[in-house]
Amino acid sequence: MSKHKLTQLKALEAESIHIIREVVAEFRNPVMLYSVGKDSSVLVHLARKAFYPAPLPFSLLHVDTGFKFQEMYEFRDNFCEEIGADLIVRKNEDAIAKGMNPKEFGVARCCGALKTGALLAALEEGGYDAAFGGARRDEEKSRAKERVFSMRDEFGQWDPKNQRPELWNIYNARIHDGESVRVFPISNWTEMDIWSYIREEEIPIVPLYFAKERPMIERGEMLIPYYEENKDQYLEGEEPVMVMSRFRTLGCSPCTGAVRSDATNMDEIVIEAAASRRSERETRIIDHGSNSMEDKKKEGYF
Amino acid sequence: MSKANLDLVKEIELLRLVTVGSVDDGKSTLIGRLLIDTKGAFEDQLMAVRKKKGTTTISSAAEIDLAMLTDGLSAEREQGITIDVAYRYFATPKRKFIMADCPGHEQYTRNMVTGSSTANAAIILIDARQGVLAQTKRHTHILGLLGIPHLIVAVNKMDLVDYDQATFEAIRDEMDEYCAKQGIKDLICTPMSALAGDMVTIRGENMDWYKGNTLLETLESMSVLDDLDNQSFRMPVQLVNRPQTADLPDYRGFMGTIASGTVKVGDAITVVPSGKTSTVKEIVAFDGNLDEAFAPQSITLTLNDNIDISRGDMLVHAGEETTGEKSLKANVCWIGDEPLEKRKKYIIKHTTRQVKALVDEVNFKRDIHTLEEQDADSLAMNEIGQITFKLQQPLNCDSYADNRGTGSFIIIDSFTNNTVGAGMIV
Question: With 0-12 CB in 10 A as exposed, 13-18 as middle and 19+ as buried, what is A166?
């Protein structure tokens, strides 16, 4: 009989650290995409563990749409300063100057310009050959089929029909000039794992994940956070009401819904996540439509 | 879940699982049953793939189009085929499961090898009406070759043979005999009806004659790490950590994932291939240093002597050294579009080391139908054979049968950079 037991969270942690170290060993110029959300918090924590006692051997890159929640910006700046991370922030300034927004231009065009466009420009500018992302296979069905090392051509695009088989824990990091990889070290984590790990490791997260009375627009079954500066983004006749609520996932404020919740601490969040019968992506406007995530990934989205 | 259960949940272990069999064996129904009964699929995901629009609740696997749930790519839905391995996640109060669902039709070797390489256990589906097919034997042979520690034969659709004990026992006996011939020891056969729910997560009332565990009980109770623990200590070095900061000017930490065995502070260590020796000073961790570490933990070690170690080297216990091999004999599953060519040079990636390798000899090709050894000069996609490589530099390795971590490698085409083969050292 075995005398050693590795809990499943520790097994996932070991796998993720192995992947992060392989990338740093084999690529010339890696960067870690940092979205400020809970998955990013876990990813950065794993990277710090991987290289302890040395500092992070790569920068964090935040692709900012300008539509993120105010609490996210505050958290990002404090957190990066506290852990001594080198933070790079990039925006699609052209599109922002032209007034890009989801209501007038549509969610697909807005994401295409402010997220994918800004990401591809930032990766090119930095000359990165590998970019870590915090995507998980349980999030969405096209992601369920994506490799840990996701090959991208010179345009940053994903070809789902032409993926490299991944065997054991041996990753093929060989690429041609101009190609790059997106690497997903937490591919095998579920939402429940993320919350349990944040609780166990006491990882700091944006306060929006904890329940509080917040002004919300009620649109059908969705709760859309109300912000004065976003008021052009709401539909006619929509008025805010105070709702005890929290966010299971954080994106852009006009496109991310909240959920009704009384979970004000990590214990309560883990209990709520265990009981939840709805997927977290349900609150993301971006995923709706027949195969929008796959389309976006083919265009170069992370 | 209650508050009292919170700390129990984090204690659960991880089991990596692979399912093989064709759609006709009821694989989708079985996966659906497991996901629904363990609440591994969310309501909004299930509702999106229900067969009858307008229903508001889903209670059985028959009500959903399972292929739509797992076929995540638009090309798969358009063509009604499964292109790739899909990963599914579910958990019980005892375990978390990562399930690689491998398509059973074309290219099964490629997909099976990919999905099975990290698995602790495999579920092989058999339709009770069909019995043991040639395909079942092929799948079992490949799983045996990949060294999956536990095989579970799920004899499904028992409801369609009136839950007949004799039918099940005939299939079980045939599989026992076949596996014994292959040297596969850990085999469990379970009769079930994934559609009706018998013996998957609950016993049901139709097979009182069967005294074994349900499928889920088996999955929850089988051992996960035993094999790794009892093997020699092996740690391929991924990186050398040299912070060179004011606080840590001379610090040198050796970072890697323990492939097998355990290591303690004070242990005598040999570096292969250099043969240099030292003792373990610290096992460094973010949350405080450890006295002992074990596979498959990712750790950082410091040593008491300043010796030359770099990526591609391996740390082992003194007295348990591997010998460097310049000629390598291995079972190879070929997964590249272009066939393996005799005399061609490839790149082999073994643990954290890459070497150039020449195909010296195709010893034989395994006929996937009869399992006979045949003469061959090459291997085409999805073929399996035994190859002898000549290596530019020696590799420190174990046999795959002894150690999956240090006995496996991938073959890379140096022109396309694609992964074209999976190797298991003989």
Answer: buried
